[in-house]
Amino acid sequence: MATEPRRASSAPLAVPRFLPALLVLFIGSGAAALIYEIVWFQMLELVIGSSGVSLGVLLGTFMGGMCIGSLLLPRLVPEIRHPLRVYAVLEAGIGLFGVLLLFAIPLVGGIYSSIVGHGLAGILLRAFFCMLLLLPPTILMGATLPSISRWVETTPQGVSWMGFFYGGNIAGAVLGSVGAGFWLLRAYDVRTATLGAAAINVTVMALAAIIARTAGPAAAGERQSSPAPVFTPVARPVYVAIALSGLSALGAEVVWTRLLSLLLGATVYTFSIILAVFLTGLGIGSSAGSFMARTVRRPRLAFGVCQLLLVGAIAWSAAMIARSLPYWPINVSITSNPWFLFQMDVMRTCWAIFPGTVLWGMSFPLAVAAAANRDQDPARLVGGIYAANTIGAIIGSIGFGMIAVPLIGTQNSQKLLIAVAFIAAVLMLAPALFGSTAATGERRPNRLVAATSAAIAALATILLVRSVAAVPPVLVAYGRYAPTYDPPKALYVGEGMNASVAVTELDNGVRNFHVSGKVEASTEPQDMRLQRMLGHLTALLHNEPRTVLVVGFGAGVTAGTFVNYPSVERIVICEIEPLIPRVVSTYFGDVNYNVLADPRVEVVYDDARHYILTTDETFDVITSDPIHPWVKGAATLYSTEYFELAKKHLNPGGVMTQWVPLYESSEPVVKTEIATFFHAFPNGTIWGNDINGGGYDIVLAGHTEPTNIDLDALDARMKRPDYTAVASSLSDVGFWSWLDLLSTYAGRASDLAPWLADAEINRDRSLHLMYLAGMAPNLYENESIYSDMLRYRRFPEDLFTGSSGLRDALRANIYGE
Questions:
Q1: Which of 72, 170, 210, 737 could form a disulfide with 283 if both were Cys (CB 3.0 to 4.6 A apart)?
Q2: Nearest of 781, 815, 813 to residue 694 by alpha carbon
């Protein structure tokens, strides 16, 4: 580090007693920023979808704005401006934009949905939409750290405080992520969460202004009019190395979140826990690195060693996630108390990823110390390092989430991460070991010792790369229940852009289709019955459907059901994960009637809500079979706005059906799902799929207008020769006639009104369902829930019309007489 005397400055310098107060302010700033991030992501996903492309665009825009802000502030704001006053203005602007976006996202979203398309044009429009909304506040967020850094000097002590500010910001981010994920959005809504974050911004702004007035300018002369350049030849490797560190950090977060969500269950709480643990490690590491930056004599060497240790830390995490944690003797079904499970989840997450996160946290302050000299503008120094780190993070998150994992899988992605960390280490350690001492001012070790050390490090890295194991099939198949299952016979295991999928076969020949650690479809009798019910009920409750929309492909059984109907001319299947129709469907061709080979079928690879929002096409029938509502993001396909949106895309006389699971759910969860659907379809009906009389799951059916089911017309329809294939498809799953199918009637909206009186409606602005459902994955109250529902069932004389003989036969079947 340069030791020439520092020239005087007219810029306000830090008053030491106020530095801890600034640290507290940065904690508040970080908390508000993470609350905003979670809220904005939730709101924007409702408009642009939650596919891998959409999330990549969102995350890239968010971090890109922060990168721009860190670079622009030192270039646009002169040093003569008091740093705390600038910081106060930035916080005020963030709070203002936070509140404005609460209203702007729905308004601009209406324009977006009217012009968006699919393919490359659609992706570009999503990116423009996100840039328009997210760049202004995120640019301000990115400018806060460079702004406040001008209140300290680029001495070892000043650099140390820059690291503490960064760590404090991360500590606040931990509080924000946990507070939003476990409290604000669970108990309240996006409006309350946004106003809470804005209140934090206002408080931080006021305190910063008070401190600025109390501390005064504390001028100490004049700094050079032309500060020392930032991107010197000596400093450039530091910027490249910190960019690679950011790349490996966010790339690892993407990969580890994918794998840990298999192990812990993909609830909204799991993602909050993983993010909180990751940020906590960064914060602890940043604090440790800040202490080191104050005392270490060779920061470049320390930074390089930190990157080298990351090689081992990434390999550790890969080994723990693939070789250790899935086989810990933990049965998550031993308790229905979610808080006990959260404790185990935190412990397992820390065990797996904490070492690497601490080292990434140490990297930032050490990189600042390695690039610093006495004549630099602190804002340019910190802004440059922060921007380089953020650019790497953008490349890491998008590159691994959208390219590396789908193309080469998580195993090879982790190998690549180890290689990236090693390259960053080489960039820092090679000059210290072999380079000229004149450039860095550091003493060069013995060349033989240096060469031996380098060879050992390279060999160790190669061995660690080779040690990375593939994700166990049992983890992809059974997720959090993996320790309680024997490894299955895996027919296929694949990792797509949005989910990991598997196809397994049991000893009795039953095939299961798994998505992210959960069985989503199978050839089990109860599952086949449900999958065919979704198709046949939808088609038979309509007079003669011609156009069909299927939300969620699964094993293709439901979509394949419509192939048998002679009136159907077009079948659109909306699936978010391309691997599922392309690969998985081939393993279920015998039960899905090889649906993808039918010329009437078109597959749209997109988030279903986004597709319905942006398409002009309408349909005679829509059937929706999304993933379980406790899976993060699934609740958007169970909201009243989604059902209203689908209803608008139904032709006159149209029918919509929706799957609702009773297992792994509590009564309040089921009530919310049913009441929300009936809010959009007040004349809706319920049809039960039971096992030996006990509830398993149900199908909700809604109509665009009041309707009745003409039993005589249906009987005549089913007797037609062109309906032979339909009758055969029904009998394959135990419905020996259409009468058996209608005998699954379990009630309707008007009858269940008393039971649903205390149900909460799941709305876009308060997606409480995913938080409520996330608390109940270990509950198996399906039989009691179903029996409670049936107590309100009455035979609907006005719904079923036709000859008395058929009505009496149906009544007898419904009541088991």
A1: 170
A2: 781
